[in-house]
Amino acid sequence: MTTLNTILLQSQGGGWSGMLMIVAMIVIFYFFMIRPQSQKQKQIKKSREAMQAGDKVVSAGGIHGKIKSIDHAAGTLVVEIAPGVQITMDIASIYPAGQQENAEKK
């Protein structure tokens, strides 16, 4: 009877250690993958909301220009890239001119 109890206790302990390892992996995954990504998204959203007409921007493709108008509902902005030359761009692909170096490093 004691050997049966010993076997049962060992198998129950193994279950708890396995469960503990799974929880530890989830916590590690959260702190190294999910949390930094959500913080980065918040920062990008904040910088997009701070954009206004007259700001200089650089597209992800390297086009430099000045914002003429912003349509937050459509997610686009009109950028003047040369005198009299305006293009419409997606807000998701725009960086404020000072943040271009940071975006290229990532």
Keywords:
106 residues, SH3 type barrels, 2 domains, 52% helix, rod-shaped, alpha+beta, single chain, 5 strands, five-stranded antiparallel β-sheet
CATH fold assignment of the largest domain: SH3 type barrels
- Give the mean pLDDT: 78
State the assembly state of the protein chains. Answer: single chain
Tell me the series of helices and strands, N- to C-terminal: HEEEEEH
What is the molecular shape? rod-shaped
What class do helices, strands and sheet pairing give? alpha+beta
Radius of gyration: 26 Å
Work out the number of β strands: 5
Low-confidence stretches: none
What is the beta-strand fraction?
25-35%
Described by strand count, sense and barrel closure, the largest sheet is: 5 strands, antiparallel
Give me the number of helical elements.
Answer: 2
Percent helix, as a range, is 40-55%
CATH architecture of the largest domain: Roll
Q: Number of domains in the coordinates? A: 2
Please explain how this structure is put together.
There is one protein chain. This protein has 106 residues and is of the alpha+beta class. The protein folds into two domains: 1-50; 53-106, Roll (SH3 type barrels), CATH 2.30.30.140. It has two helices and five strands. It has helices spanning 2-50, 100-105, and strands at 56-59, 64-71, 76-82, 85-90, 94-96. 8% of the residues are buried.
